[in-house]
Amino acid sequence: MRDNYRRILHLIVGIVVIATIISIPLRSFAQSFLQSWSEGPQFSVEFYNPEFSAYNYKGLTSLSFFSLRYPTRGNLILDADLPFVYYKNSSYYYSRYGGGRLAPGNPYLGMTVFYPNSPIAVNVGVRIPLMSYDDGNFARVANSVDFYRYSSASQRVGSFSFKIHYFGKIRSPLSYQIYVGGMASFLFAGVGDVQFWLPYGFAWRYKGNEAILGAGISGILNVSDLNISHGKRSLDHFYLNSGLNLKTWIPGIYIAFPIDKETRHTINLVYGLRVTLKLDRFGK
């Protein structure tokens, strides 16, 4: 029954999104998201701390990213990130080893192509499968926190991905973003073990002179096995974020609530912090 309600909710959201797009004329497309990408080179540190209701995780169990974004002189932006996963487990088995473990995940290399007068940007990238060890906890923590960068800490699992971003303006300074794409995750040193995923999201954003406020839905759908019910193949979060666009840096906070039943059984919510440094503003 709940799966049927979720399907109806997704259908309603889809109809509202499509109606919003159709009702907004072409001249009103916003560039606020793209401008934040192309203002200059940026280095970011992100920290996400999930509040688990299962698996005996505690403390600073978290997923972190160190990322770099570098716009070129043309319409190309280069992206890279390196994730780190830490977990602390209070169960007896893990407490014998101190209860806490830290490991680097699978690094990402990608690029985003956009045109200044277009509402569309295309992102493509690869996550390199360098994580050689996982006791099951690293992937569980990472994949429960960040659906946009799924498989960031899965053992010997890499991925190819593409996303199409669509940007629109509701009324200045309020804008929105829609993205949809595809991802193929593969088992390194494995044969035939390929999973196909559909990442998607919708976000609203307010950007004033300094204040940045946002809200949205982020999710991913497994499209490899259609015999499994939709409720068990999709993972969804509703999130809120805010930040301050200062001269040399952008501090921000993030909070997310799981929507799908599978994630709700294990996570209550996710807290996040992000600090972005504007590398071209230092010394000015």
Write structural notes for this entry:
This protein has one domain (2-278): Porin. The chain has helices at 2-23, 32-38, 92-95, 137-145, 230-233, 261-264, and strands spanning 42-52, 62-71, 76-88, 100-104, 108-114, 120-127, 157-171, 174-187, 194-207, 211-222, 234-244, 249-258, 267-278. The model is unreliable at 1-35 (pLDDT under 50). The protein is α+β, with helices and mostly antiparallel strands and 284 residues long. A 12-stranded antiparallel β-barrel has the order 1-2-3-5-6-7-8-9-10-11-12-13. Strand 5 (108-114) and strand 6 (120-127) form a beta hairpin. The longest helix has 22 residues, at 2-23.
Name the features.
12-stranded antiparallel β-barrel, disordered N terminus, 284 residues, Porin, alpha+beta
Q: What is the topology?
A:
Blueprint: H1 2-23, H2 32-38, E1 42-52, E2 62-71, E3 76-88, H3 92-95, E4 100-104, E5 108-114, E6 120-127, H4 137-145, E7 157-171, E8 174-187, E9 194-207, E10 211-222, H5 230-233, E11 234-244, E12 249-258, H6 261-264, E13 267-278
Antiparallel strand pairs: 1-2, 1-13, 2-3, 3-4, 3-5, 5-6, 6-7, 7-8, 8-9, 9-10, 10-11, 11-12, 12-13
